[in-house]
């Protein structure tokens, strides 16, 4: 993971294109404006009427602004956003807990045993990162039907957890290998069982790797669309934030007094998390991007 | 014996879940791709490689294949050019650079579904930009309603939403370029340009390769953004492979055919991902040694 850490080094002396000061800054400012315009439109349009959105999209005069549409979107009968938050947070928490509970111990075994079969086991898990989940979900529907779990919360949580296993195990096993085995041997001598040794000695030392995975899983579960849409389906009445947005927005796609407030409510929590934890989020999501 | 049971209790749960939810479904896909199953009937017939043969004749599947490859190829080049270009511009530990890095990265935090809806509200025929153009008396621009424009818009939005990750990866790579070499080049009187092409770029080579293959693998799976930005249209012109696979499997009830397409897509992405894994291992070794 060495290449992935966010650059923190004071590498001021090294700038191949020393695009002399102001030119560089001006260019970056223009780019930043282009990057931020959609977000600006999203935020201000959530407080404006359809006519104002279309005729004066960029203007921000106080007499145009109203809370009415945001309030309507928050109490939309087609999609209860508060329930959407609750359902999504439930999924995020369950997947994170289950993922650590399952991936932690198996990674510990893989990292501490040198037999060939444990190396093969690691390879098997890592091979899972190569399967695109949009395509995997199709046969999974039939596996879940067979198990009687299709359209249920446990079915969805188990599948989402499975998707987190390959990269978690890859990351955790690699991390545990950097923790001296003498620590757990000492604890074993004192009579602690393997599970105890792992959870009370090794696990607390894995914090950086666990934080990375929790961030990655939180964002990928929150933002996932295809899996909840197909596994939970409209029939179950269970909407996550994204499937709820799909249900609410695709129906009224040109009524912007519905579209913008709903989208704003959908992204607001993650944007707040991002602003609060930028460095962690950036390195976590970038680590995830490299899983391929 | 006891130790064995303990090990089993640590490995078992994860392994069972992985096999049931991933290994078995992948095998099921392989099997279904050899049948004519519609998703309902009790006795799907075994048809051998027929689905794979019809894949090579299906105009729709071939077009989706080309669209996907085009998105992947053009998108990958743009992501890497923007990624490296902006990494060079925001490299260095100033506060301003940290701010720019966050601004370039933030769209990646949003779900692709929301990004697509947002941009379709901005670019749609009756969207914000066109509403504004109309109110100024100008012509409406067909960002999403003309096949060629729609594909270009799709790629542009993918790049807008994704290149921040490439910036971060290249920034990490830039930290590994030997300071001694850069200094030596400077002392020897090399120009900025010469230094970049003769020192920085060769040192970045492994990072460039990793970026290219990662972007390719990610773009080959493009799905959510198609759903929310263009809905695959106009007239199917922005249907990607993943979009068509899900469409064939669940709306057209052609599960066998959809599975054959899945298997092909899986093989292609797995092949590329394996390449990246090997390249990364080499790059990491290069960094340490």
In words, what does this structure look like?
The complex is a heterodimer of chains A (292) and B (289). Chain A has 292 residues and is mostly helical. Chain A is 72% helix and 0% strand. Chain A has two domains: 14-67, no CATH class; 81-289, MetI-like (MetI-like fold), CATH 1.10.3720.10. Chain A is built from 14 helices and no strands. In chain A, α7 packs antiparallel against α10 and α10 packs across α14 (278-289). Chain B is built from twelve helices and no strands. Chain B has one domain: MetI-like (MetI-like fold, Orthogonal Bundle). The chains are: A mainly alpha (292), B mainly alpha (289). Chains A and B meet through α1, α2, α4, α5 and α6 of A and α1, α3, α4, α5 and α6 of B.
Q: Main traits of this protein?
A:
heterodimer; A: 292 residues; mainly alpha; MetI-like fold; 2 domains; 14 helices; 72% helix; B: 289 residues; 75% helix; 0% strand; globular
């Amino acid at each position: 993971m060495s290449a992935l850490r966010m650059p923190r080094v004071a590498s001021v002396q090294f700038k191949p294109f020393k695009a002399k000061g102001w030119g560089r800054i001006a260019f970056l400012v223009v780019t930043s404006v282009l990057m931020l315009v959609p977000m600006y439109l999203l935020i201000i349009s959530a407080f404006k009427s359809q006519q104002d959105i279309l005729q004066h999209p960029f203007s921000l005069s106080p007499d145009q602004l109203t809370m009415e549409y945001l309030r309507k979107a928050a109490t939309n009968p087609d999609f209860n956003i508060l329930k959407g938050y609750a359902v999504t947070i439930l999924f995020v928490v369950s997947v994170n807990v289950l993922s650590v509970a399952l991936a932690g111990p198996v990674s510990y075994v893989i990292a501490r045993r040198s037999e060939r079969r444990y190396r093969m086991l690691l390879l098997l898990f890592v091979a899972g990162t190569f399967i695109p989940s949009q395509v995997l979900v199709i046969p999974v529907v039939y596996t879940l039907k067979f198990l009687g779990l299709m359209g249920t919360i446990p079915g969805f949580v188990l599948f989402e957890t499975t998707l987190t296993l390959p990269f978690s195990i890859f990351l955790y096993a690699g991390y545990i290998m950097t923790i001296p085995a003498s620590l757990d041997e000492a604890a074993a001598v004192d009579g602690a069982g393997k599970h105890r040794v792992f959870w009370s000695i090794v696990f607390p030392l894995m914090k950086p790797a666990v934080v990375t995975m929790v961030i990655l899983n939180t964002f990928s579960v929150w933002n996932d669309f295809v899996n909840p849409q197909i596994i939970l389906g409209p029939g179950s009445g269970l909407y996550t934030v994204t499937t709820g947005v799909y249900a609410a927005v695709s129906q009224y796609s040109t009524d912007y007094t519905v579209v913008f407030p709903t989208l704003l409510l959908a992204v607001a929590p993650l944007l707040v998390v991002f602003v609060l934890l930028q460095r962690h989020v950036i390195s976590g999501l970038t680590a995830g991007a490299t899983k391929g | 014996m006891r130790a064995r049971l303990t090990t089993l209790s640590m490995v078992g749960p994860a392994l069972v879940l992985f096999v049931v939810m991933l290994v078995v479904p992948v095998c099921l896909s392989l099997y279904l791709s050899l049948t004519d199953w519609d998703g309902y009937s009790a006795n799907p017939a075994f048809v051998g490689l027929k689905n794979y043969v019809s894949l090579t004749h299906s105009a729709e599947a071939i077009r989706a294949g080309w669209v996907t490859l085009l998105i992947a190829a053009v998108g990958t080049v743009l992501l890497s050019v923007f990624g490296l270009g902006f990494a060079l511009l925001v490299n260095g530990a100033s506060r301003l650079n940290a701010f720019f890095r966050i601004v370039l990265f933030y769209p990646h935090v949003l779900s692709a579904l929301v990004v697509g809806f947002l941009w379709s509200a901005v670019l749609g025929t009756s969207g914000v930009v066109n509403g504004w153009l109309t109110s100024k008396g100008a012509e409406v621009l067909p960002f999403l309603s003309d096949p060629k424009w729609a594909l270009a818009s799709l790629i542009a939005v993918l790049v807008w939403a994704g290149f921040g990750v490439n910036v971060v990866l290249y920034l990490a790579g830039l930290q590994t370029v030997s300071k001694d070499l850069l200094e030596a080049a400077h002392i020897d009187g090399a120009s900025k340009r010469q230094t970049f092409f003769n020192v920085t770029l060769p040192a970045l080579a492994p990072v460039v390769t990793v970026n290219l293959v990662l972007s390719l693998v990610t773009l080959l799976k493009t799905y959510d953004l198609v759903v929310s930005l263009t809905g695959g249209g106009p007239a199917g012109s922005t249907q990607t492979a993943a979009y068509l696979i899900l469409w064939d499997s669940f709306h057209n009830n052609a599960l066998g055919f959809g599975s054959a397409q899945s298997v092909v897509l899986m093989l292609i992405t797995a092949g590329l991902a394996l390449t990246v894994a090997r390249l990364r291992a080499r790059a990491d070794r290069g960094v340490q040694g």
